[in-house]
Amino acid sequence: MHGFVAVYLREMLILKYRFKRQLAGMAISPLLYLITFGYAMGDLIRFGEQSYLHFLLPGLVAMASMTQAFAIATDINVARFYWNIFEEFQTSPISNLSYVAGETLAGMTRALLGVLVILVLALPFGVVLCYGPLFWLAVLLNCFVFASLAVAMAMLVKSHADQSLLTNFIITPMAFLGGTFFPVDKLPAWIQAALHCLPLTHASSAIRASSLGQQPRLIDYLVLLGIGLVFFWLALHSVNRARD
Amino acid sequence: MIRIEQLQKSYGSVQALAGIDLKVGRGELFAFLGPNGAGKTTTIRILTGLTRIGGGRVFIGGHDIVADPLAAKRQCGLVPQHVNLDSELSVLENLDIHGRLFGMPPGKRRARSAELLHYVEMADRAGHPVKQLSGGLKRRLMIARSLMHEPNILFLDEPTVGLDPAIRRRIWALIKRVQQDGATVFLTTHYIEEAEFLAGRVAFLDRGRIVALDRPQALMDGLGAWAVDRIDGETMATRCFATREEATAYSAAQDCGFTLRRVNLEDAFLNLTGKKVS
Fold it and tell me: How high is the ipTM of this complex?
C-alpha cells in the first residue's frame, strides 16, 4: 500500500508543479473542436432534437478522457528513458501491483481533470448535459482502460520513439473513429462491427447516452470493465519486462 | 552480508559476467575496480534488482534476490552512476518520496530527512528544486536519499565520476563516514586513487571475471614500491622498482620523458591483465 501511495503522490506532485501548463494543454484541442465543429459548423448538422454541440460534447469527453489517461505513458517513459527515475521504483521494496496501480490512478486523475476542463469550456457555448452517476461511471471506466493500456505500453516499449508510434497508430485513429464526431450506427454494418471492437466506441456510447438523459447500454460498461481489467493485467505482467 | 555464487549475465552473445564468486562481510568497504565494460555496473544492477540475473545465486543480508526480492531490497541503498533524481521536485520531496517507497512513517521521514540533509551539509537547500543544484550537490543528495531508509548495505556505482577533485574528496569523506556509522559499502570505480583511499578490500574485474581479490596493499606487494612511466611519443611503458634509488637510476638513463611515482593499484592491474584500468 505504501508503494502505491508513493508512486501516486509523486505523479501528483509533478502535476502540481506543471498545473497551469497542463490545464492550458488540456484546453486547447477541445476548445478548437468546440469552435470549429460545434460553433461554426454546428448549425448545419442536427441529430433529431439535438444540436451538433450536444452530440459533440460527450464525444469530446470520451476522447479527452482517453488521450489524457494515455498521456501518462509519456510521463512514465520520460521518467524511464531520460531521467532514470524508474530505477528508484525498481530498487524499492514495492510490488508490481503497487507500481501499476499508482501510475494507473495517476493517469485516471489527469484524465478526470481533462474532462472537467471540457465541461467548464462547454459552459460559454450553452451546453449543459446530465452529469449523473452513470455518466461519471462511464468516464471512470474509460480512464481506467486507457491509463492501464498506457502503463502496459510504457513498460513494453524500448524507446520514446516507439511510444510516439503507438499514439499515432492506436490512439489518434481511435479518437476519430470511436464515435466521437459522428454516430457509428449510421455506418455500414461491417464498419460498425469493426468499430465496436474499439473501447472508445463503447465509452462514447455510454457517455453520450448517460449525458443526454437516455438509458445507456449495460454491455458498454461491461466491455469497458473487461478491457480495462485485461490491460491492467497486461501492465502488471509487463513491469518485469522493463528491467535490463 | 553479500554472497555471490557463480553470477553470470549475458546480453545476446556478449558475456558481461562470466561466473563471479564473492563474499562481502558486515561493515566492510569493498571496491570493484576495472575498466569500462568489465561488468562492474552489471554486477551492481543485478545486486540491487535493476537487472535480471542470468545465472548463479545472490544473497543480500541472507535473502535470495530471486526468491525474496523485496526483503533483499529493504537491505540496500543505491547511488547509481547517473543522476536519477526527480529534477522537478524539491530536495525534501525527493527524500520524502523515497521514505514513502520504503514504508517509513511520516514522523520518521521528517526526522530522517532533516538529519540526512545536515549530514550531507545541505540543510539550507531543503526547499530548493533539484534542477537548481550543481552536480556535486546532486551527488550528495543521491547519497542522502540512498541512506534515507537506513540500509545495511550501500551500493555506489562510480560515485564520483565527472566530479572535480575537491568535490570528489568531500564525497569520499562522506562514504567513509557511512561505513564508520556501521553500513557495508560496495562501490565500483575506475579511479585508482578512489579504490586505494576508500576500500578495505578490492576486486579486480576484467571481462566479467574477478582476476584478483585482496587488500589494496596486498595486491601491490611484490611489485616494488616505485614505478617509472617511460613516455616515448604516443606510447607509455611502466616499470616497477623495489627502491627509489633503482627507479631514479633507471629514469636517469632514459632519453625520453618519464614520471617517477609510487606504485599503485593501476600497476597491479596492469601486471595481472596486461591493460590499464583507466
Answer: 0.86
